[in-house]
Amino acid sequence: MSNQWSNRLSFIVTTCAFSIGLGNIWRFPYIAGEGGGGAFLLVYLILILMIGIPIMTIEIALGRMSSSTPLVGFGKLSRQPLWDGLGWLGVLAAQFIMCYYVMILAWVVFYFGENLSGNLMLLDTEDLKNHFTDVASNSGKVIAVIFGIMIASFFIIKQGLQAGL
After folding, report:
1. Opening angle at CA 15, ends 165 and 153, nearest 5
2. HEC string of the chain?
3. How far is the C-alpha of 15 from the C-alpha of 20, rounded, in Å?
4. What is the pLDDT of residues 5-29, one digit of tens each?
5. CA 69 – CA 43 distance, rounded (Å)
6. Mean pLDDT across 31-52
7. pLDDT tens digits for 69-92?
8. Structure pTM?
């Protein structure tokens, strides 16, 4: 099976989701307000144009030219072992990002399930606070959700770009 995007829309949506991330959705309004509003937004957009878009373009070009992942692509396009290390640096960065996001996703999935079961609907503010404290102190529930997410992620990734996305 060829490891290519099934269609252009899948590529665009995945690239946008990866580029935007939860930080821009959750933190951005707060940071923009604290940083000066319009002035912050102007500087932010200039930096996106000067740094973010060129780096994204380079990553896309690397993938197209090497027809492989960045880990292998740096080695294919350069004969110096230093560039292989840069590919591994990307893998390390992805691992750190995954550790952060899997915990957030576990909490979201856990509370989504709690909400669907109707358990949270009948609780008042104090009971919700106690429920949150109980869940936070009993990390076994959240760890079980994390394992479920990791297993689901494994099977999605194992299917590759054609069937996984």
Report:
1. 40
2. CCCCCCCHHHHHHHHHHHHHHHHHHHCHHHHHHHCCCHHHHHHHHHHHHHHHHHHHHHHHHHHHHHCCCHHHHHHHHCCCHHHHHHHHHHHHHHHHHHHHHHHHHHHHHHHHHHHHHCCCCCCCHHHHHHHHHHHHHCHHHHHHHHHHHHHHHHHHHHHHHHHHC
3. 8
4. 777 887 788 777 777 777 777 788 8
5. 32
6. 89
7. 777 888 788 877 777 777 788 888
8. 0.63
Could you give the C-alpha distances from 31 to 37, 59, 131, 142, in angstroms and in order? 9, 27, 30, 29
CA atoms of 30 and 23, how far apart (whole Å): 11
Q: Cβ-count burial of 40 within 10 angstroms (0-12 exposed, 13-18 middle, 19+ buried)?
A: middle
Span 138-157, mean pLDDT? 87
Residue range 56-60: average pLDDT?
84
